[in-house]
């Protein structure tokens, strides 16, 4: 739907890593010193198929989250979902991509040590993926105010939040403006044509499903869940969930994505390359980890807003 792009050079200075492939690709950037201002641009992409996480990635994020809901949040989600999905949030996690009338374009800037300030070209605040997450989290925090004075459509707020929490964890969603988050990096994925954005959206997931899970996405999702309940990520779970204010942690998620886009997304890739086993094997663990983190953090936010953490939200809004 809409994409949070980062200026190439600055993106790769986040986390202290510097990859000179950037300079070689974009000579005009060579020599620009790494300033402490990061510019991000969010652009609406109207082309179908250009989105962060494919249907499969979003559905897994939402299923993982839904399985982690505490009774109160579970109940609220059931109340908000339309009957025809039979209580399954994941069915509607791509819905926001189908109603793409939301964002034009936006720009976010970050000064070292301060929070993201994102706004659209007219200066309207919060117009970026992180802003959207804040917005819809805030709307959901009004859930306990009762049906009569609800200013917002809580169902829509839930679906948007669920969707954007997936998006912000897809590293190429926070790729470079100059190449549309990898969309213009045309290459081959094993034998067929693809682009770098799509590799991260979908190809890696589908190749994993085909190679290791008999094409059953549910088995892949269960393997991901197994890895954070008792497997390799179980000791990381607490840190993934850590968030002192539910309205401020999306900046961290965006920064992680940017860092990952540099270190794993773009690294070693040129237009025209043929990506295969090496790229697939080294990136699959990153993709599955981002899906796991997205799901775990979506659950964390929903558990907190529906447990009546709305006070926390409002205090935060006043404070910022
Ligand atoms: C916030 O939510 C409102 C109402 O749902 C919507 O009109 C607006 O575009 C949203 N803004 C952002 C930045 O998501
Ligand atoms: C909320 O939004 C959904 C999806 O757009 C719509 O189907 C539903 O009727 C809306 N609910 C209310 C109370 O307006
Ligand atoms: C889960 O962890 C095992 C290693 O313990 C690894 O081989 C497997 O690929 C992981 N699966 C996913 C989906 O992350």
Give a description of the structure:
It is a single chain. The chain has 320 residues and is of the alpha+beta class. It has one domain (2-319): P1 Nuclease, CATH 1.10.575.10. The protein contains 13 helices and 7 strands. Strands 1-2-3-4 form a 4-stranded antiparallel beta sheet. It has a 3-stranded mixed beta sheet with strand order 6-5-7. Strand 3 and strand 4 (117-119) form a beta hairpin. Helix 6 runs antiparallel to helix 7. The longest helix is centred in the last third of the chain and has 30 residues, at 277-306. The structure holds 2-acetamido-2-deoxy-beta-D-glucopyranose (NAG) (3 copies). The site of one 2-acetamido-2-deoxy-beta-D-glucopyranose has 7 residues, from helix 6. One 2-acetamido-2-deoxy-beta-D-glucopyranose binds at residues 153, 155-156.
Features:
alpha+beta, disordered N terminus, four-stranded antiparallel beta sheet, 7 strands, P1 Nuclease, 13 helices, about 325 residues, binds 2-acetamido-2-deoxy-beta-D-glucopyranose, globular, three-stranded mixed beta sheet
Overall geometry comes to globular
Number of domains: 1
Reported for the largest beta sheet, the result is: 4 strands, antiparallel
Indicate the percent of residues in helices.
40-55%
* Secondary-structure-derived class: alpha+beta
**What is the string of helix and strand elements?**
EHHEHHHEEHHEEHHHHEHH
CATH class: Mainly Alpha
CATH architecture: Orthogonal Bundle
Proportion of beta-strand residues: 5-15%
Mean pLDDT: 78
Question: CATH superfamily assignment?
Answer: P1 Nuclease
Give the termini separation: 27 Å
Strand order of the largest sheet: 1-2-3-4
Unreliable residue stretches: 1-50, 101-117, 315-320
Could you tell me the radius of gyration in angstroms? Answer: 19 Å
């Amino acid at each position: 739907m809409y994409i949070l792009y980062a200026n190439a050079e600055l993106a790769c200075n986040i986390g202290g890593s510097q990859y000179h492939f950037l300079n070689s690709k974009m000579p005009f950037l060579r020599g620009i010193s790494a300033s402490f201002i990061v510019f991000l641009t969010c652009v609406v992409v109207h082309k179908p198929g250009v989105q962060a996480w494919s249907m499969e990635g979003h559905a897994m994020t939402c299923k993982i989250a839904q399985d982690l809901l505490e009774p109160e949040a579970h109940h609220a989600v059931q109340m908000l979902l339309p009957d025809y999905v039979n209580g399954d949030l994941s069915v509607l996690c791509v819905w926001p991509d189908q109603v793409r009338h939301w964002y034009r374009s936006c720009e976010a800037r970050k000064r070292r040590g301060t929070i993201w300030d994102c706004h659209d070209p007219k200066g309207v605040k919060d117009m970026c993926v992180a802003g959207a997450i804040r917005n819809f989290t805030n709307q959901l925090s009004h859930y306990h105010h009762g049906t009569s004075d609800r200013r917002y459509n809580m169902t829509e707020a839930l679906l948007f939040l669920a969707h954007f929490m997936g998006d912000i964890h897809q590293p190429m969603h926070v790729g470079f403006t100059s190449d549309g988050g990898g969309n213009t990096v045309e290459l081959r994925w094993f034998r067929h044509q693809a682009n770098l954005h799509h590799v991260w959206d979908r190809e890696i997931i589908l190749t994993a499903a085909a190679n290791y899970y008999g094409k059953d996405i549910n088995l892949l999702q269960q393997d991901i869940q197994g890895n954070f309940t008792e497997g390799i990520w179980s000791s990381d779970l607490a840190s993934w969930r850590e968030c002192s204010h539910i309205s401020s942690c999306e900046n961290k998620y965006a920064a992680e994505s940017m860092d990952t886009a540099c270190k794993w997304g773009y690294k070693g890739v040129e237009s025209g390359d043929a990506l295969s086993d090496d790229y697939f094997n080294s990136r699959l663990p990153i993709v599955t980890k981002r899906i796991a983190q997205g799901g775990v953090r979506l659950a964390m936010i929903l558990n907190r807003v529906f447990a009546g953490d709305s006070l926390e939200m409002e205090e935060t809004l006043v404070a910022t």
